[in-house]
Amino acid sequence: MTSIPERVAVLGTGLIGASIAMAATRVGCTVTGWDADPSVAARAGERAGFEPAGSLEVAVDGADIVVICTPIAAVAGLAERALSAAPHAVVTDTASIKTPIAAAVLPSLDAPRFVPGHPMGGSERSGPEHAAPSLVDDIVWVLTPTGSSDPAQVDLLAGWIGRIGARVLRMTPERHDRLVAFISHLPQVASTALMALAATEEAGEPEILLLAAGGFRDLTRLASSDPVLWSEILRANADQITAALDLYIDRLTALRRDIANADADAIERTFVFAKSARLKLATKPNVRAGVAVLQVPVPDRPGALASLTASLGVGGVNIEDLQIVHSPEGGRGTVHLTVAGADADPAAEILRGASFDPIRLA
After folding, report:
1. pTM passes above 0.85
2. Are strands 65-68 and 90-93 parallel, antiparallel or unpaired?
3. Distance, CA of 273 to CA of 283 (rounded, Å)
4. pLDDT digits (tens, 9 = 90+) for 205-225
5. Which domains occur in the chain, in start order?
6. C-alpha to C-alpha distances, 203 to 207, 208, 210, nearest whole angstrom
């Protein structure tokens, strides 16, 4: 093992795997990739700039770091093979559930070189075509070393993760699974259930989805996620997710009661508390001074968005996040721009000078 990992093998080259490969290549690592589906590996290799390997063993040969980016059920078996075929490599994974994976790999004699992990980045999209190195930029990458993990190997892996642009957070597998049930799995369930409810109502009210505005579209964005992937995740973390759902249902029930009783004070307290918490949730953790959100109507024509972003770039304003909400009526849309709080007024002034009409939302 070298003191600075230079050779990286990515097993599973979909959205996450290809994005990690691109981020590693960006900092000068030599990357190999393998996928059970050769066509996926070929597309990922073309996008990420690596030559796909013909087998897992070829991919990990000589690797310093092996990153397994496959569905949960495949991780333990691939980890065992990688640990055997790459006797000096640190092996990690990116699955969103950690406890069952850690337990499955522990019997291995090479378990000290296995460090479970979970990069907290992704998209409702899938496939290497949507990969980008920015997917790992400044995200939290959780490492959940087990009692068998070698601390030196954990430190080496953490250093490499920081090198490719992410921020390491360490915790136990059990704590990880409880926390992601709330901030990752529960939002997926809520989004899917809301979209399914609206689609069911559409049978009797065919115009209902034509009325869908930005709020509904934002809340149901996750409903377009991979059904097979999420079925596996929910079943693997069933105990933690059902506990989170019970607490969420309690909150909904309390709010329902306040609405039914027309209790204005109670309703407002709920909204004030939630709004205050949401405003503390910065789009990027490195925006120390806080953020501001600008709503900008834009015409639906070629070059409109480019003009908006170029104007801010020329003016020296960095865009922290950007979301586009298309109008159901067509012909126009709305861009939600997140900028550092100190840049809100300059950004608005720049946009007005470019013939846009921004409104500050937060």
Report:
1. no
2. parallel
3. 19
4. 778 777 776 678 878 888 988
5. 7-171 (3.40.50.720), 176-279 (1.10.3660.10), 291-360 (3.30.70.260)
6. 9, 9, 13
